[in-house]
Amino acid sequence: MEKKESMKLLWLQSGGCGGCSLSLLGAESPDLLTTLDAAGIELLWHPALSERCGGDLLGLLQSILDGAVRLDLLCLEGAVVRGPNGSGLFHVLAGSGRPMRDWIGALAARARQVVAVGSCAAFGGISAGGGNPGDVCGLQYEGARRGGLLGGSYLGPGGLPVINIAGCPTHPDWVCETLVQIARGDLGSERLDEFNRPRSYADHLVHHGCPRNEFYEFKASAVNPSELGCLMEHMGCLGTQARADCNIRLWNGGGSCLRGGYACINCTQPGFEEPGHPFTETPKIAGIPVGLPTDMPKAWFVALASLAKAATPERLRDNARADHIRVTPGKRAP
């Protein structure tokens, strides 16, 4: 049986912190390199995993542009930097004298599929915060608006737009799973959501599987960091609106932001970096949180919240304001 030719993957980093690569190195069962090998993906270059640098790297990139080396998958981590004044000179690829923005655009034109890894590459992300002084954008989006470096109408030779594996950082499984789906030919447009995020993780809410759900159901809320109660009412948690499976597909075998005591900031959503209020505060109007659970009318939420608070067990009320379980579940007679 003739062996299928491997897919060629090039990974670039632009305006960002490198956190998605750091997260990716924590991939488990299997690890990243085993996953790529099993999927028939050859990693041409990655800034943290490859020895090639300087002139050798520039030679590889030029070979791709010349058509001597095939490029099936182009992954970009970090936002595209266009400043200052549209020159792209805030970020120049070392040794080339050429803005990274131009390299990305030229290589994307050669790639069969382009993948944005992380919210910076997808939408601008944290790199676009603070008034966007670097004039950064995503590959195919600027915030929630289509556009970006490649334009809103861009489609690769495979017929797909830029695949946005959004997150800050991304879960290693989101990246590995998406790359495997592409390699197998299983990732069609029907498996992408409205922001071209893979539905394998974006069809869930962070709220699903949250360990604080019992507190949420009775609206037993935390008011200070480290308390066990629900973080939605006072502490800024957006888990009931955020599209991701963080509490189902746990990080590093058992973690998530909420399990670590941190409110969900909806980092897979375009524009999450500028919520208009501190991440740890819940904005309210007349005492009602502005951001309510997805698909729930405000009147229903207010009515159910009132009933739930009236029925809150003493155990939950006490434990919600503590940093450890003070009251254990009671025993019911058989």
The helix count comes to: 10
Principal-axes shape call: elongated
- Pairing-aware structural class of the strands and helices? alpha/beta
Helix content: 10-25%
The total strand number stands at 13
- What spatial order of strands do you see in the largest sheet? 2-1-3-7-11
Which fold does the CATH topology of the largest domain refer to? Rossmann fold
Average predicted local confidence, pLDDT: 94
Q: Which homologous superfamily in CATH is the superfamily of the largest domain?
A: NADH:ubiquinone oxidoreductase-like, 20kDa subunit
CATH class of the largest domain reads Alpha Beta
Could you list the spans in which at least 5 consecutive residues all have pLDDT below 50?
none
**What's the story with the biggest beta sheet?**
5 strands, parallel
End-to-end C-alpha gap: 64 Å
In terms of topology, how is this protein built?
Elements: E1 7-13, H1 19-24, H2 32-39, E2 41-45, H3 54-66, E3 73-77, E4 80-81, E5 92-93, E6 98-99, H4 100-108, E7 113-117, H5 119-123, E8 136-137, E9 141-142, E10 145-146, E11 163-165, H6 172-184, H7 199-202, H8 213-217, E12 284-285, E13 288-289, H9 298-310, H10 314-320
Walk me through what this model shows.
By secondary structure, this protein is of the alpha/beta class. The chain folds into two domains: 7-202, 3-Layer(aba) Sandwich (Rossmann fold); 204-325, Cytochrome-c3 hydrogenase, C-terminal domain (Cytochrome-c3 Hydrogenase, Chain A, domain 2, Irregular), CATH 4.10.480. It is 25% helix and 12% strand. The protein has ten helices and 13 strands. A five-stranded parallel sheet has the order 2-1-3-7-11, with helices on both faces. Strands 4-8 form a two-stranded antiparallel ribbon. Strands 5-6 form a two-stranded antiparallel ribbon. α2 (32-39) runs parallel beside α6 (172-184).
